[in-house]
């Protein structure tokens, strides 16, 4: 099984240029502790933003990919509070061009100095804008893509989407509805338990990217595939 997993991971790592988060990125758990992305399990409950825009917690129901040996050029967004958010260029983040509590979703490659990310304000349970003051790049080994039941996740103290490429958060979140239903059904029948994510690309991500780039955005295939 290890050999099969290795072949599977190697094939899709070569086929798609996908990163998301490095293993050292940190999430906040519901129990008050922190955990690195590389150590996340399916079923872990992490900090997110709920439907009302408040700080909340949600389960990680899917790891769209877990690439331990892949090297990725990450974008590091540094904010005025001294924190940094590290993510691949195609990962989607909540951002605003002006100081505002209203956010849009945009790929990390489109974020500019002077834009605003959003960080949780735990004293009142809201998300507040924080200005991006510097942007740099760094090559890091490892790439992980945890997906939560609400479709977003707080990483390194900043709010990010669970999804890549597609900047329409509702469209991306809607596609993964069957996996959320399956997660709830499994927990109802067997009870909730923590599970180790499988290495390589989960087939749901391959299906999502293939469907989107062929139906909505043909150019996306050319950008992602090694041709």
Strand content: 35-45%
Number of domains: 1
Q: Helicity, in percent? A: 10-25%
Shape: globular
Report the oligomer.
single chain
Structure description:
With 227 residues, the protein is of the alpha+beta class. It has a single domain, classed as Endonuclease - Pi-scei, Chain A, domain 1 (Beta Complex), CATH 2.170.16. The chain has helices at residues 2-15, 169-175, 177-190, 203-215, 218-224, and strands at residues 26-28, 34-36, 45-49, 55-79, 84-88, 91-95, 104-107, 116-121, 126-148, 152-155, 158-164, 200-201. Strands 3, 4, 5, 8, 9 and 12 form a six-stranded antiparallel sheet that branches. A four-stranded antiparallel sheet has the order 7-6-11-10, with helices on one face. A two-stranded antiparallel ribbon has the order 1-2. Helix 4 packs across helix 5 (218-224). The longest helix has 14 residues, at 2-15. The protein is globular, with a radius of gyration of 17 Å.
């Amino acid at each position: 099984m290890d050999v099969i997993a290795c072949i599977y991971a190697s094939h899709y790592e070569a086929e798609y240029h996908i990163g998301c988060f490095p293993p050292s990125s940190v999430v906040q758990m519901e129990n008050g502790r922190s955990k690195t992305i590389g150590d996340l399990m399916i079923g872990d409950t992490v900090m997110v933003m709920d439907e009302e825009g408040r700080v909340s917690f949600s389960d990680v129901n899917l790891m769209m990919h877990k690439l331990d040996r892949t090297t990725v050029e990450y974008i590091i967004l540094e904010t005025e509070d001294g924190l940094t958010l590290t993510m691949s260029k195609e990962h989607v983040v909540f951002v605003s061009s002006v100081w505002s509590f209203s956010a849009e979703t945009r790929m990390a490659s489109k974020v500019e100095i002077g834009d605003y990310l959003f960080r949780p304000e735990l004293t009142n349970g809201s998300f507040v804008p924080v200005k991006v003051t510097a942007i740099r790049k760094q090559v890091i080994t490892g790439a992980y893509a945890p997906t939560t039941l609400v479709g977003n996740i707080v990483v390194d103290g900043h709010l990010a989407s669970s999804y890549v490429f597609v900047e329409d958060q509702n469209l991306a979140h809607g596609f993964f509805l069957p996996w959320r239903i399956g997660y709830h059904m499994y927990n109802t029948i067997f009870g909730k338990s923590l599970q180790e994510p499988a290495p390589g690309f989960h087939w749901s991500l391959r299906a999502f990217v293939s469907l989107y780039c062929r139906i909505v955005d043909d150019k996306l295939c050319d950008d992602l595939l090694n041709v």
